[in-house]
Amino acid sequence: MFEAVALAFGLAMDATAMAAVRGLAADRREAVILPLLFGTFQAGMAALGWALGAWGGRYLDEWDHWIAFALLSGVGLKMLFDAWRGAGADEPRRSGPWVLVGLAVATSIDAAAAGITLPLVPVSPWLSLALIGGVTVACSALGFVGGRTAGRFLGGKLTALGGVILIAIGVRLLVQHL
Fold this sequence. Notes:
It is a single chain. With 178 residues, the chain is mostly helical. It has one domain (2-177). The protein has helices at 2-25, 30-85, 97-115, 125-154, 158-177. It is globular. The two termini are 32 Å apart.
């Protein structure tokens, strides 16, 4: 059971960091939508990895870091552009659904690769998937609230900081896998 919980927390950390970044300047409605989306995608991608098994692992391992880098850098650059443009920088930002889905995909790609290992965890893969989704929802919600609190204290210009952080996470993922 410990292995399943540890896997769930490990996979939730990227989503938690991303939720905290979004919390800095995003619309407060994302406090519910984003954690649910992240939890669903984490569990769903882990299930996909489990289903693909050994065949899919080779391909996921080969491309996951590039996909995550492109998605995170793209969203980060958009946030930097929005901050540079300055339009409504002190107001919460609403994002279209595709931005949120892109973030959910980017933060859950590693879950697909980890899903391949689910049969090795000494509990039911279904329980592992439920833990992955549930822990990600809880951690992402806490991360979003923490980012939201920091955003109130530090001001609306944090959109640029959030963009830099997203790009840095993308670069870190890319460098770790090269």
